[in-house]
Amino acid sequence: MCILRQFIPALPNVKRGCIGMVLFFTALCGMAQDKPGDGAIWIDVRSEDEFKTGHLEQAVNIRYAEIGDKIAAVTQDKGADIRLYCASGHRAGIAKDILVEMGYTRVTNEGGYKDLQAAAEK
Fold first, then answer.
1. According to the model, what pLDDT value does residue 74 have?
2. pLDDT tens per residue across span 37-94
3. CATH code (residue 85)
4. Domains: count for the chain
C-alpha cells in the first residue's frame, strides 16, 4: 500500500488549497496499485460521504460536478485511460461527457460501484 494513502484519513479538514495536491498524490498511489500493465486512472465521481462508505482501493474521489475543474490535478494527458464510476453509472456518464468535451479521448463509464465490487469478487 502506498505510504501516503495511510495518512490521507488523518487529514479530515484539508484546506481547499490543498485539495489538488491530495488528489494528485492519491492518484499516484492508485496508479501504482493497478494491475501490472493496467495504467488506468479510476475516478469515483460520487460524493465524499459516499466515497467514505467504500470505494475501489485505487480510486480518486472527484465529484462529477467538479470533474472539469479538478481533472488536471490527476492527469493532463488527454489520452490517459480514465475509468469513472458512481452508484449507478448516471453521474459517471455526466462526468464522461464533460471529459470528452474537454478533449479526453479514453474515458469509460464503468457503471456502479456495487456492480464493480461484485464483478471483482467473481
1. 97
2. 378 999 999 999 999 999 999 999 999 999 999 999 999 999 999 999 999 999 999 9
3. 3.40.250.10
4. 1
Decide if 2 is catalytic: no
Residues in Cβ contact with 98 at an 8 Å cutoff, skipping those fewer than 6 apart? 64, 67, 68
Spot the catalytic one: 2, 18, 29, 86: 86
Q: What's the confidence (pLDDT) of residue 120?
A: 86
Range of the domain at 81: 37-121
Residue 14, domain member (yes or no) = no
Count Cβ atoms below 10 Å from residue 96 Cβ, excluding itself.
23
43 backbone φψ class: left, alpha, beta (φ>0; ψ -120 to 50):
beta
Question: Which three cell numbers mark 62?
Answer: 472527484
Instruction: Give CA 41 to chain center in angstroms.
Output: 7
pLDDT > 90: percent of the chain = 65
Q: Is 69 contained in some domain? A: yes
- Distance, CA of 109 to CA of 94 (rounded, Å): 9
